[in-house]
Amino acid sequence: MSTRPTIKTIAKDTGLSTATVSKALNGSPQVRPNTRDKVLEAAKKLGYEINLSGVQLRTGKTHQIAMITVISSPHDDEWSGVGYAQLVYGVSDVLHDTPYRVVQYQASSYEESFEIIRRIVANRKADGIILPGTRAQDERVEYMQLQEFPFVTYGMTTLAQPHAYVDTHNQRIVSICVERLIAKGHRRIAMLNADAVLMYSQARERAYCQSLEAASLPFDRELIANGELTPAFGREQFFEMSMFDAPPTAYFCANEATAMGVLSGFHVRGYEHGREAVVIATDDLNVSQYFSPPITTCYLPISKPSRVLGEFMLRLLNGEAPEKLQKLFVPDLIERSSDVSVIK
Amino acid sequence: MSTRPTIKTIAKDTGLSTATVSKALNGSPQVRPNTRDKVLEAAKKLGYEINLSGVQLRTGKTHQIAMITVISSPHDDEWSGVGYAQLVYGVSDVLHDTPYRVVQYQASSYEESFEIIRRIVANRKADGIILPGTRAQDERVEYMQLQEFPFVTYGMTTLAQPHAYVDTHNQRIVSICVERLIAKGHRRIAMLNADAVLMYSQARERAYCQSLEAASLPFDRELIANGELTPAFGREQFFEMSMFDAPPTAYFCANEATAMGVLSGFHVRGYEHGREAVVIATDDLNVSQYFSPPITTCYLPISKPSRVLGEFMLRLLNGEAPEKLQKLFVPDLIERSSDVSVIK
DNA sequence: ATCAAAAATATAAACGTTTAACTTAAGATG
DNA sequence: CATCTTAAGTTAAACGTTTATATTTTTGAT
């Protein structure tokens, strides 16, 4: 037995045809329970394990889930990609006991990611696509819809046709954080936000404006910064904004990396958290509890949306309708530090 | 042209046989340059792209590189897996222009990872394996060697038969850091190290002992802690060790997450960095520059070993000998904060 | 011009699986 | 009892490629 057993081996062993063996293994009702048992027994005895290449060639099913990541600038010194990375684990974990595997596809730009998606779809290189980082009118999403290719996004779009997605409740996050700050007397609240082309960045900006408006506070465009959410970005923006004539007294950061950067800026400039200004953030690793000082955050463990991403993908491949596969997560507010004690 | 072109399509188009088309596409010397051009032209015209399932079934080549990750406890609140995650990107980036893709295989224990590897090898589910987190006498490595399956580890082993690996120069890192601390007057240096079963953890402990010995300093087992390198671990260990009758004046952390935890402990206990104690660490994200205060680290951007991991894999698949594919990276010391100003 | 050798191409089988179409036997129907 | 239906299998083809072997074409020497 030098060579790996196939259904042919089982067929020979049981005296059945390969067709019956195949049907038995796939639980077809066309085969008697009796014979099915015989087949399964033989399979076990011989140590049979299905060869997915055969299946793939015959049926087109690849058992691969493509995970698209767009990392614009792979600079060494930055925290980029950490968020994505954690995403992979949740999905991968959910797929653990299925024949599906997560396959990495890395793009360096939106355009390239579109190109990659086109090739995956056209050549059926995967059975489904998971796409984080959506745009409002995302052409990639439109394309996959048009081609009727299964996909789940991490992030919503404003497209008319519904699709499967998972997202955090951005509007809620922002109103929780901003209204809290306003209630405590903050009038100039900086918002360090993601790249403006991203859907969630836009949603947050809108919510930010609404919260200000509801409190009859003026909107100052200068207090909004968009960029790649790294510590470097946070620190630089702090350096800039803190030099304003009327500098912000609060920095609302779109993730914990950015918050760390702002706190680093505090340290460099001799700021004390809660004296000149405060930092509040969205967090999905809960690493902000280890900052010095720990800061208040809206916390949603990345594993949650990540796992649902995987679950939705499986259900999609099982034939469920995309419009039934949509979920928004509402993070918890975790109060930690004196984010309200700014003397104003 | 509703269906995707195959070599058959090209054969029909050019009037050649599929065999010749196949050879032409693969650059076989058996085909005349003239005909090859004709084939390539037709392929381009028709938009032909090879179907890897066919290749896979015929040749056994899967074009998949399995990346094994062992995440023992997938707790939400922790920074675990971040290191692995970054590894994927470098590999994936190097494979970008090849037909190979990185496929995630996630295990929750050493035993399970072994099981997974056995299945990948036995059923040729991948063309090669990348294995981070080696043990000294790693049975998984032995197994892959025995089965002559291509693999690259991130981390060395003490096995007799050489294999392809990438690693940081642990001995050097430790001696750089520890000797620096000793030179500045530190006598009690805590070492927050990885799980003791891991090869690099052992290597570092050995180097630590050597450095102490060279300086005729006593070795105190209490100053060494092993565990999962998270901020939580760092903080807890700090809490414990700082209560010793003779507490450490320096904490040497095996990664930046642990260092962050120790600094968090400092903050909680009202320590000031450089007064009661200092922190020094190994870093591969260079995120420690944003700590408050920034700390001195031995820095090796994770992208470097990560990319070499991918390169070695490609060369291995190209037939190069494993013993030629070994590389140790020496990190740079980045001096940042007053890690020497402890009054002792 | 002829012929052998070399070069280029063709034929056909194989990889492991699924599935449409077919066969056979047994059971149901009247 | 003849006929129809159903259940449970079988046969054979197909998915797209590579490659061993066979065949044809070209080349170059005589």
Describe the structure.
Two copies of one chain form a homodimer. Chain A is of the alpha/beta class. Chain A has three domains: 7-50, 434 Repressor (Amino-terminal Domain); 64-168 and 303-329, 3-Layer(aba) Sandwich (Rossmann fold), CATH 3.40.50; 170-301, Response regulator (Rossmann fold, 3-Layer(aba) Sandwich), CATH 3.40.50. Chain A is built from twelve helices and twelve strands. Chain A has helices at residues 7-14, 18-25, 33-46, 52-59, 82-94, 110-122, 139-146, 170-183, 199-214, 231-241, 256-269, 303-317, and strands spanning 64-70, 101-107, 128-132, 151-154, 165-168, 189-193, 224-226, 250-253, 278-283, 296-299, 326-329, 332-334. In chain A, the strands form two sheets. In chain A, strands 2-1-3-4-5-11 form a six-stranded parallel sheet. Chain A has a six-stranded mixed sheet with strand order 7-6-8-9-10-12, sandwiched between helices. In chain A, helix 6 runs parallel beside helix 7 (139-146), helix 8 (170-183) runs parallel beside helix 9 (199-214) and helix 10 packs across helix 11 (256-269). The mean pLDDT of chain A is 93. The interface between A and B is large, with 61 and 60 residues. Chain A binds a DNA duplex (30 and 30 nucleotides) through residues 6-8, 16-20, 22-23, 26, 30-32, 35, 50-60.
